[in-house]
Amino acid sequence: MRRVLPLVLVSCAVLTGCNAGRSVAEGAGQFGRGFGAAATAPLEDLNLRRQYIPTVLLQAEANPYDLRNLTQCRPIAAEIARLDDALGPDLDEPPSPDGRFISERAADAASQAALAAVRDTTIDFIPGRSWVRRLSGAETHSRHVQSAIQAGRMRRAFLKGVGMQRNCAPPAAPSWFQPRRTRR
User: Fold this and answer.
1) Collapsing DSSP states into helix, strand and coil, what is residue 75?
2) How far is CA 138 from CA 47, 115, 126, 132, 161, in A?
């Protein structure tokens, strides 16, 4: 494994740097940022570095069904946009056309595989990793992060249902929803 890892890293750096449509510096920079995060993964296990939880997810965790100040479509859409920023696009949203070439997608996939190998290698150096995570509090924080993400997803789905009930157009409702026409 020790002989294979440097070969994989060099290959991915070359693939990432040689993407069509991207500069070498940009591709290498993305790989470098990912490499730094993968190499410092043990800091999370020791609870020396924590994953940030956005405020909107903490609010969703505290009260996922809160409708205060959400009586009209615009505020509902704004709250859903805040959740989308924290969680990424909802499942009902069509994938955005990124316009990348197949070679770019292949290079990104190779880069992600190499970064996963680096992360796995660095965290394997910690003996008794599960105990270290429990004793340091990292496991508790990880569960809190997952709970906040789940609450945010639940709140977004709830708000889209409220938006449908109030006859709001997307994004205050699911993307497939067509508001009823009101008679005058």
Assistant:
1) helix
2) 5, 21, 14, 8, 35
Q: Do residues 13 and 31 lie in contact, with contact meaning Cβ atoms separated by under 8 Å?
A: yes
Instruction: Retrieve residue 88's tokens.
Output: 């990424």
Amino acid at site 97: P
Element spanning 110, H or E = helix 102-123
The pLDDT of residue 153: 95
DSSP 4-71: HHHHHHHHHHHHHHT-TTS-HHHHHHHHHHHHHHHHTTHHHHTTSS-----HHHHHHHH-TT--TT--
E-assigned strand segments in 99-145: none
pTM (two decimals): 0.61
- Phi/psi at 8 (nearest 5 deg)? -65, -45
- Mean pLDDT, each 10-residue run in order, the chain (184 residues): 45 42 46 59 60 91 94 95 92 70 70 69 62 71 89 96 94 91 67
